[in-house]
Every structure is written in C-alpha cells, then in structure tokens.
Amino acid sequence: MTIWTPRIQPNSRVKYVGIVEAIEADIKERLLKPGDKLPAQRYIADALNIDLTTVTRAINEAAKRGLVETQPGSGCFVAQTAFSHYNSMRLTAGKKLDLSMNNPPNPAELELEKEIALALSSLNDKHSIPLKQLSYQETAGNPDDRAAGMAWLSDKIPDLQSDLVLIASGAHSALFSILSHLKKVGVKAIAAPDFSYPGLRSIADHLAIEIYGIEMDQDGILPEDLEHLCQKYHVDALYVVPNIDNPTTTTLPKKRRIEIVKIAKQYDLSIIEDDPYYSFLDKPITSFYRLLPENTWHIATLSKCISPALRVAYVVCPDTNEALALAEEMRVSNIMAPPLMTAVASYWIGSGRIVEIISAVKAENIKRQQLVSSIFSENDIWSHPAGPHLWLKLSKGHRALDFTEQAERSGVSVVPSTAFVMARSRIQAVRVSLGVATDYDSLRTGLILLSDLIITSRTRSKSIV
After folding, report:
1. Quick one: which H or E segment has residue 145?
2. What mean pLDDT is predicted for residues 228-256?
C-alpha cells in the first residue's frame, strides 16, 4: 500500500484546493491507487505547516469529487472507483468532449456542406440574372419561401394558408417576437414546464413576464398542475415543446394534449407550441395548432432537425391580423431571416430533399440512442429512440451542479438541470446531448464515463459520513 507524501499542487489558487489537486494528480499518474490510505489530517497539516481546518476542507472537497472515501474509525482512503475518472482509454487527450450543445448530428454520408453548396448553385439556372435572395426581403419572408414553409408544415397542419406563415431567424428570435407581441396585448404571466428552454427564461425576464413552472412526469407536463396554476395565479399563456421535449425528452400523448387544450379554452390561454423535433416521430401526434388554431402560435425551426447554420424557423399565427402584428414586432428586432439560408430550405422543400436530409439525421440519432441504451439503465434516463439528447437523472441527495463539475474535470461537458429550471427544482438531472461528437468511440467513452460517475456517486453515498 502506497503511503502518500503530503504536498500542495503548484499554482493552485488556494491551499486546500492545492491539496485536492495534488491527490487528483497522483491518482491520474497511478502514484495513488484505490484503497491506499492517506495520512492522518493532523499529520498532513504538520507536514505542510498549515491549519488543520484547511486540511479538513481539502479532504471534504476530495470526497465530494469522488477521489477519497472516509471510513469512521479507520481513516481516509483513495476511493475504489477513483480510476473511473481517469480510465486507460484517455478520453480526449486533454480536450473536452462536448455533450452540452444540442446540435443535431452531421451524418458522415450526408456531407451537409456540399448539400448547401449544391442547393445554392441550383437556385437559379440563369446565372446572368442576380438571385432575388441577394436583396433585402420582407420581414415576414417573400411569398415563395412562405409557400414552401406552408408545404413543409402541411403534414402536421393541413389546409394551412401561406398568409399565416412567417419566416423568422431561428426559433429564439421567433419566441422573442411572439412574447413581445403578447406582452403588448396584455399577457403578464406564462406557464411552462418545470424544466424548459433557458432562452424562454431570459426573454421573459427581459420583458418582465412572470413564469410559473408546471410539474412533469415521463409523459410531459401534468394537466392538473397547469389547471392548479391557472386557478391560483393569473396565467395568460402556455409554452410547451410537445415532441421530444428539450431537455427532458418527453412527448405529450394525444389524450393529454386534449386535456391541456380543454384547460386552455377554459382559461383563455394562448399556446406557444415550439416543435423542432416533430419530424423525428415515427407516429405523428396531433399538434396543438390543429387542436386549437385560434389560440396557438406554432414554431418549427430547421436548426434542431438539420443544422444550426440554417437560421430558419417557420411561425404559424392564429389568424391574419395576428400575423400582421407579429410581422411588425419581428421587424423591430430582426429585419429578416437570412435570405440565402431560407432559399436553401425552400429549394430542399421543393425538391423533396429535405425529407431525405432529416431522415438521415434521424437515423443517426437512432444509432446514437442505441449506444445510450447499451450503457445506461432505463431507470437512470429519460430518452426518445430518435431524440438528439437524453435526460440523465441523479439519485436522491446528489446535486446536478456537483455532477456537472465532476464530469467537466473528467473531460466531458454536460448541462445541469439548474440551467433549465423555470420556477422550482425538485429533480436533479443533467441533459446529455449526442450530436456534437464526431465519432462513436469518443461518444461511447464519454457516455461510459458519465455512467461510471453515477455509480461512483452511489457508492460514495454509502461510505461517506
């Protein structure tokens, strides 16, 4: 058994962190092994000529990071699971694996850059005539592009009129304009899932709109809790991601959607339906817009199902007057959606290529979710077979921020549930996004590391006092 020589890692910002980092460095280099006993805290304090309280703080922090375990009456030992942080696969050679950004994957066989270039070169056969997309466009989008958007949305919103379709520069821009408009017509408070898109919170704060969180289960928001909020507070609108919710991956069943629409009618709620993942469903579910068109604003972005490079989102308004009002609001914050990217989207829609591209992205999502299923227990995650992310639940007594910090130190970036909380936080979890990783080996290694961290935290909860 190795006897650790107390030391403080050079260049550490404070002494207690220096001790922790020294222990961590020696575990990485295999100078300390699981089960090795650390010297008594007073011995470490004397050896380093520092206060005993500083050493105690260091040992507590090392235990929090999963590096050591304290056994009452026996002392402090290197944790049996410590090596899981620094396994022999050497995750990314000092580079972080990003599982935080919710990008759709870029299937190797798709070559999306070439697809975009091909679409641009095919937009006009007569190269002597300047592309109309090189000029300023109407804020709502030119009629041809709006007609293309109508065609793309016709599967989930049939019999749609192009006058109700506007083109925004991404879903966030659309959401800002919708909320800004609703604020002007009297909306003061909205209800949203307990965990929801962080941009919603920032926009609502900017506009001084109150947000109330709706409790959720594995099928999404609970209608009875929405009704409770409507009875207790003056709620004017509902924000919801109905399919493969970001971040929780939940998909609202049709029966629950009907119950929510009934509540919306009773309390005259406007519904903001943010629906980027509809195309990944095997069995489409009736949209809120079809169930309650007179009260619903529908947003469908291409950023989440194809690429964030396409800052194109289609907004369907409740009626033509609302469409005109929203166009005025959009003009204030964003003159127009990017014309060339909108033209690419219209070309793909017209040629049918958009279906093939989204199908390739969906197939890639499925492969990555199958990898997830081979590593995690169903009890640990919420996921969708074709979703681009998963919701990793943490056991009772463990904090999402701590887990995220541990993952970051081990080379993997994820997002804690605290980043998504709207009004309260009763669940500790992290969102793990699968799209940024460019190869399966690094993705597999990162997922295994996260799985090991879950096991580590459970083991530690039994041994730490």
Report:
1. helix 143-153
2. 97
Backbone torsion region of residue 382, taken as left when φ is above 0, otherwise alpha when ψ lies between -120 and 50, otherwise beta: beta
Confidence of residue 85 (pLDDT cuts 50, 70, 90): low
Residue in the structure block whose two tokens are 């909020």: 229
Buried b vs exposed e over 398-407: b needs ≥16 C-beta within 10 Å?
Answer: bbbebbbebb
CA 420 – CA 405 distance, rounded (Å): 17
198-226 confidence digits (pLDDT tens): 999 999 999 999 999 999 999 999 999 99
Do both 77 and 221 map to the same domain? no
Residue 215 sits in a domain of what CATH number? Answer: 3.40.640.10
The residue to which tokens 């009129």 are assigned: 161
N- to C-terminal Cα separation, the chain: 24
Name the one residue in this structure whose structure tokens are 């005109």: 324
Regarding whether 65 and 170 lie in a shared domain, the answer is no
Q: Based on the structure, what is the number of domains in the chain?
A: 2
For 67, phi then psi, to 5°, come to -90, -35
